[in-house]
Amino acid sequence: DGGITQSPKYLFRKEGQNVTLSCEQNLNHDAMYWYRQDPGQGLRLIYYSQIVNDFQKGDIAEGYSVSREKKESFPLTVTSAQKNPTAFYLCASSPKGAVTDTQYFGPGTRLTVL
Amino acid sequence: GQNIDQPTEMTATEGAIVQINCTYQTSGFNGLFWYQQHAGEAPTFLSYNVLDGLEEKGRFSSFLSRSKGYSYLLLKELQMKDSASYLCAVTTGGGNKLTFGTGTQLKVEL
User: Looking at residue B28, what DSSP letter applies?
Assistant: First the structure.
């Protein structure tokens, strides 16, 4: 079965700790994306990558970091510099990152920072 | 900047038709996507419009008017399982970056 996996579904961390969220896809897609979703707000783009070893900041990149060492994987690290890290995090991928490409989403990770 | 507006909530009756509107003000508009999202789950793709007009796909249809900065999603023969949030998103510029509206929470009642 092809798809996008994110783990874990729920994650709890103490304030001041860095945490890494995983995202893996076996769709052979070139482009991958990280979004954050908060209640009453639309999805907001954190980082995106259109090719291995390259990535760009989205609209709210401060306090986050990513890597793209493999085509299948695009992990997101939420650092202690992120002021309001508690949110629902969604990873997505698209075939080529072209304007007309549909983005397909993983099941999400709900991060709670205590 | 980009501005996308959708109603926050709508309620409709099972078996009826509902229209969810989306207006946008963006620069460099390319196309518009509609996604469905059940609570706590991933958004799933419904439709994509790049040209003016109506795109029909089963019970769901989506309309776009580029000159008016306006789109709607039409859901026919509503079912209880259609209770979800419906997200309008636009692509602008040369890439595949999506800008989302806040979503419309649809509740289908008996």
Answer: S
Q: Which helix (H) or strand (E) holds A79?
A: none
B44 touches A at CB < 8 Å: yes
Nearest to B87 by CA among B30, B28, B51, B39: B39
Angle at the Cα of B91 from the Cα atoms of B88 and B93, rounded to 5 degrees: 155
Task: Provide the β-strand partners of residue A92.
Answer: A33, A105
Q: pLDDT digits over A46-67, tens only? A: 999 999 999 999 999 999 999 9
Q: Which residues on chain A are in Cβ contact (under 8 Å) with B36?
A: none
Beta bridge partners of A103: none
* Residue range B2-21: mean pLDDT, rounded: 96
Whole-angstrom CA distances from B74 to B30, B55, B62 are 21, 10, 6
Instruction: List all residues 6 or more positions away from B106 whose beta carbon is below 8 Å from its beta carbon.
Output: B9, B10, B11, B12, B18, B20, B75, B82, B83, B84, B85, B86
